[in-house]
Specification:
By secondary structure, the protein is of the alpha+beta class. It is built from eight helices and 14 strands. It folds into three domains: 73 residues, no CATH class; 154 residues, Glucose Permease (Domain IIA) (Distorted Sandwich); 73 residues, PGBD-like superfamily/PGBD (Muramoyl-pentapeptide Carboxypeptidase, domain 1), CATH 1.10.101. Strand 9 and strand 10 form a beta hairpin.
Length: 359
């Protein structure tokens, strides 16, 4: 079985992490710092340095030619092409998955046996989303899940028209099982309905889903003429960062900042901010949305993000229990993970060397 890979903050020193990922050895690591300054390697330091240089210069995480054994995530009537890493947003971004074009309300199928590691309820700023995780720790993310009442483009379908009954966080699903419906939620509203499908390896690196999709569909649906959605989805890290956002500043009309942008995104997800995009500028539209929010919360309608409003916003965001989603790795965590992997690889090399010397 897989070790736990939901890494928690090192600040909780009592938190212990069991790690038995890449090489199969099982280790209990008390803390990230423990990984970094932990027991000295039995191998000479110089060899370690050389090995480190080798592993660091070579890509540690294979990102191409990975074929996962999956069921095609859309039931039928789909068309797609390899648009992974295609430039988006005028070249400022790279597409992190493949877009599978299909009519609205086409069933979405579980790509693998696994656990529903996340569903967006209520609708997130980037739309309805399902994340599945298989028993090897790979993750399959479904974006733009339907948000419309059937036969409309009203954006008011609610979770019951996004997800199949029973598709809730922590639920177990079987490959091929219907889990939701194709739609255009989030920033796909202005383009064709489609599924944005991502595959992440156990280290949370995105891999190209295309080879797995082609294997799953037997080449069916692949077309160079599949529509270009040109949608810029937020990355996994950005999606999670929005969920864990904490409002801390006073915000007023005329402000322009990333926190204003967060405010707009949250007000949008709660249904108060109706402007099509988050501009990061606190103008009259944002103020009106905020006043409506304050009215609903029965707090003074100041039109500014004051202390009471911050509390209300953070309370609303608090419905996103940090334990309910997979935390992304910050730089220190990534480094610690890398060092742990290097150690495991060194241990394997040592074993091999030992075996060879035995001859
Ligand atoms: Zn996409």
């Amino acid at each position: 079985m897989m070790g736990r890979r939901y890494f928690r903050s090192c600040a909780e020193s009592s938190e212990r992490i069991t790690e038995n990922d890449a090489i199969g050895g099982s280790k209990t690591l008390s803390c990230y710092v423990g990984i970094i300054v932990g027991p000295k390697l039995s191998m000479p330091r110089i060899a370690y340095a050389i090995l480190s240089a080798f592993f660091l210069s070579a890509p540690l995480f294979a990102s191409a030619d990975v074929v996962r054994d999956i069921v095609f995530p859309v039931k039928d009537n789909f068309t797609y092409r390899d648009d992974f890493l295609e430039p988006r947003g005028g070249g400022t971004r790279k597409h992190q998955g493949n877009d599978i074009i299909a009519p609205k309300m086409t069933p979405l199928l579980a790509a693998v046996d696994g656990v529903v590691s996340f569903v967006a309820i209520p609708e997130a700023p980037w739309g309805y989303e399902i994340e599945l995780q298989d028993d090897q720790g790979w993750r399959y993310d479904y974006l733009h899940v339907n948000n419309d009442n059937p036969g409309t483009d009203d954006g008011l379908g609610g979770p019951e028209h996004a997800y199949m009954p029973g598709v809730v966080r922590g639920a177990r699903v079987s490959r091929g099982e219907p889990i939701g419906w194709v739609g255009d939620s989030g920033n796909a509203e202005e383009t064709v309905s489609h599924l944005h499908f991502e595959i992440h390896d156990p280290n949370n690196q995105v891999v190209d889903p295309f080879p797995s999709l082609v294997a799953a569909s037997g080449g069916k649906g692949v077309s160079a003429n599949a529509p270009r959605t040109n949608v810029v989805e937020p990355t996994f890290e950005e999606r999670k960062a929005q969920l864990r956002y904490i409002f801390s500043k006073e915000l007023n009309m005329g402000n322009e900042s990333s926190e204003v942008r967060q405010l707009q995104l949250i007000l949008k997800s709660l249904g108060y901010f109706t402007y099509p995009s988050a501009t990061a500028y606190f103008g009259p539209i944002t103020r009106d949305a905020l006043v409506n929010y304050q009215k609903k919360k029965r707090i003074p309608e100041t039109g500014a993000v004051d202390l009471l409003t911050r509390r209300a916003l953070n309370t609303d965001l608090g419905t996103w229990d940090p334990n309910d989603y997979i935390p992304f790795y910050n730089d220190a965590e990534k480094k610690a993970l890398l060092i742990a992997q290097l150690r495991q690889q060194i241990a394997v090399l040592q074993e091999r060397l030992k075996a060879l010397q035995g001859y």
